[in-house]
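The authors assume throughout that readers already know how a fold can be written as discrete tokens. In essence, backbone conformation is discretised, so a fold becomes a row of integers matching the chain in length. A single example would do more here than another paragraph of explanation. For illustration, here is how one protein appears when written out as sequence plus structure tokens:

…
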Amino acid sequence: MPPNPQNLKPCKPGETHNPNGRPKGAKGIKATIKKYLKYELAHKNPLTKKDEKLSAEDHIILTAIAKAISGDDRAREDVLNRLYGKPVEHTKNTNTNMNVEATQDTIRKIKESILKDDND
């Protein structure tokens, strides 16, 4: 049994189980990640192989680019998708046997058949 079954009851309209909401000044996960990605540390640049002072964000990006250059297909796809956007897949009707007039004629015959059955 849950420690507090009260929490399992749905809220009534206009009621909330968290009336104060998130405390002021509380940071979300996105803000925390951005904060730590800005820290600069001494890293070996994956492209130039030289020791440099890089932010964690730059190091991650350069590592992805280096992996893409070395032949990692997944890394290549990720880098290019972030740079140019994910390609849109277009579909094309390849059914060349479709005759619009014949299709319309078939629909007309079906309608006539239904109407004839309804009148009988």
About this structure: The beta strands are 40-44, 51-55. The CA atoms of residues 71 and 88 lie 23 Å apart.
